[in-house]
C-alpha cells in the first residue's frame, strides 16, 4: 500500500478541514491512502501515531501556506521525512491563495512537479 502524508499548518487560516479533504482527494489519485492528521488521528498518543504513519509513507506532500515553514510540527515532519529518504512534493494553492471549498462547482487540478492546486482552470 502506498501512503501519502499531507503536511500542513492551519495557523494562518489558509486551509480548513474541508479544503484538506479536497486536496487529499486529488493526492489519492496517485496513492492508495492519504493521511491527514486532523481527519485520521484519534489515537490516544497522537504524536507517536503521526510519526508512525510518516515513517511508513512513500511521499510527504508539503502544503505551502504562509504559516507552513514557521510551524514546529511541520519542521519536525520535514526533518523526519528527509532523514528517512521520503519523497517530498511541495503543493501551492492557487494564485489567489484561496483554498477550495466543499461546495465549489469546479474541480481542483494539478500542474507540474511542484504541484499547484488550482480551481476553475
Verbal overview:
- The chain has four helices and five strands; from the N terminus they run βαβααβαββ.
- It has a domain at 1-6 and 18-31 and 38-83 and 106-121.
- Strands 2-1-3-4-5 form a five-stranded parallel sheet, with helices on both faces.
- The longest helix is centred in the middle third of the chain and has 13 residues, at 72-84.
- The chain is α/β, with parallel strands linked by helices and 121 residues long.
- 31% of the residues lie in helices and 18% in strands.
- β3, α4 and β4 form a beta-alpha-beta unit.
Report the sheet-strand fraction.
15-25%
Distance between the termini: 31 Å
Radius of gyration based on Cα positions = 14 Å
Helices and strands, in order, run as EHEHHEHEE
Biggest beta sheet summary:
5 strands, parallel
Structural class: alpha/beta
> Which runs of at least 5 residues are low in confidence (pLDDT < 50)?
99-114
Shape: globular
| Number of DSSP E strands | 5
Strand order of the largest sheet: 2-1-3-4-5
Tell me roughly what share of residues is in helical segments: 25-40%
How many helices? The count is 4
Mean pLDDT value? 78
Give me the secondary-structure topology.
Elements (H helix, E strand, L loop, with lengths): L2 E5 L9 H11 L5 E3 L1 H4 L5 H10 L3 E6 L7 H13 L2 E6 L22 E2 L5
Parallel strand pairs: 1-2, 1-3, 3-4, 4-5
Features:
5-stranded parallel sheet, TIR domain-containing protein, 31% helix, globular, alpha/beta, Toll_tir_struct_dom_sf, 121 residues
Amino acid at each position: 500500500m502506498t501512503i501519502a502524508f499531507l503536511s500542513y499548518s492551519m495557523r494562518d487560516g489558509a486551509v480548513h478541514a474541508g479544503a484538506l479533504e479536497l486536496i487529499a482527494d486529488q493526492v489519492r489519485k496517485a496513492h492508495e491512502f492519504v493521511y491527514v492528521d486532523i481527519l485520521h488521528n484519534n489515537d490516544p498518543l497522537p504524536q507517536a501515531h503521526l510519526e508512525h504513519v510518516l515513517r511508513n509513507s512513500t511521499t510527504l506532500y508539503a502544503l505551502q501556506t504562509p504559516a507552513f515553514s514557521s510551524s514546529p510540527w511541520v519542521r519536525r515532519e520535514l526533518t523526519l521525512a528527509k532523514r528517512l529518504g521520503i519523497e517530498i512534493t511541495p503543493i501551492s494553492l492557487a494564485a489567489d491563495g484561496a483554498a477550495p471549498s466543499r461546495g465549489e462547482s469546479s474541480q481542483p487540478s494539478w500542474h507540474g512537479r511542484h504541484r499547484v492546486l488550482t480551481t476553475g482552470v
